[in-house]
Amino acid sequence: LDKFCLGLEPQTQVRFTSTTSALKAQTEKKTAKAAKESRTFQAIQEERKEEAERSVLISCPPKINEKKFLDYLSKHGTINKHFFYNSYGANAVVEFSSRESIASLKESINIPAVEHEAAVPFKSRLLSLKWPGSQSSNHPMPKFKEQSPPSINEITQLLSERDSMDEQLQCLTETLQLTEENISLRFLVCSLLRDIAGAYFPECIIRPFGSSVNSFGKLGCDVDMILDLDGIYATSQKKGSGLSLEYQVKRGASERAVTQSILSVIGKCVDQFGPGCVGVQSILQARCPLVRFAHQPSGFQCDLTANNRVAMKSSELLFLYGKLDPRVRHLVFSVRCWARAHSITSSIPGAWITNFSLTVMVVFFLQQRNPPILPTLDRLKELAEKLLQEFFEFYGNFPFNKASINIRKGKEQTKPETTALYIQNPFETTLNISKNVNATQLERFVALCRESAWLLQQKEILKQSSDSPWGFAALLLPSVTSGAGVKSRRKRKLEPASSRIKNLLDSLKIKGGETVAKKGSA
Ligand code: CTP
Ligand code: MG
Question: Which residues form the RL domain (predicted)?
Fold first, then answer.
């Protein structure tokens, strides 16, 4: 308590001493939070998976009476958590405290009789709530949790209201990152899918990986899933008489062929029996075979892969990097947002730089800094703003033509092949994770990095302003330098930049072009 009261006004001290129990509770809460934060990646995933297994997803009528709804479900057991959200209508996620509640609930539910069609009699945890008669709307409406990210315009507006660029970057991360509810929904969709795959492989687990779990996910990002069959290989053979039994199995030509055939069957099953799963595509010839589909009740685009242990490891690695220093996530979120605003990245697959490549580029940049990761306390505040500028300078001048990015060594390496952008996969070291990127896309990225670095050097950009975007928000305005960029973005409806920024950009064309060109050739 002394520690807490130190340095407080006497009046406040009295109030604090009289609320010792409140403080104790607060301290316990903090300890619990610290314990929660120090859990391993695997422990966090395990806990979320287990919560998902005790949850159901219910499509609800629009004017839901929350109290009646919860009372009705509570007949089957204690409810731990619940939330409502919109995706093709109102939906609720309800997490019970015990799995037995799910069994009890399922026993009380019917397969519906459908008119003019027939139902596939598959009992999943995706349910529909029927409410007899018309509902009165005199009761308070439940809060609906947002599952989509704000638009660039909304972000620009939000950022302009902050007090410093440091606060802007923090606000950006907090606004775009996945919410607790959104992560729970991702695990629930994996768990629902597991129930389908479990019909063939009862020991299987479907785990989310990539940005759903690596702490760099943005609201609206896809759900990458792995069908994990490792549980099947676990043996419990006892030594003894020398006799042993093994399963007779069907053989495939290679591990890849077996993965393809498993995914092909599960893809068909998802397509034909999976409630809410639409637009199922089996992309089995890809380097990493996958089944892609949309899960309508959650609104998620899903990619299901199998036999992909390395991807789980790389998700954990990024998660650990994100935990080392809060600025890592701030930098990744701002670079990704900047790249999206300028169409350096896209939601459509193609020759663009991907979010994953960008994240590895940020990690590499942070490794290359001198000192590499943690600076002195005095520089922390200064660096929070400076890092973004230095990131743009670093990649604005990076010798992409001859060097590759290698986060295993934390050093530039000579490019082993002539692709535009070479980022070595840290686990499968012969692979280039950005093999898809073409020279034009890389040039646009470099040109925008230079322009943004230059903009951040202009003190005017950093001055707070109420009538035009400033700080990071100014970096999201349409660019003027990159020729290729301007051409490819002509189709987009551009908002006129404020005259202040327009002037800055015009002067960039004249004098900045020269400096940038010099820097680039250095
Ligand atoms: N991955 C990889 N090599 C690639 C592409 C992807 O190892 N060339 C792995 C990474 O672990 C990545 C995951 O597959 O995190 C999912 O890929 P993707 O969905 O493209 O990236 P995310 O990191 O999930 O980012 P986004 O938010 O854009 O989905
Ligand atoms: Mg993804």
Answer: 40-108
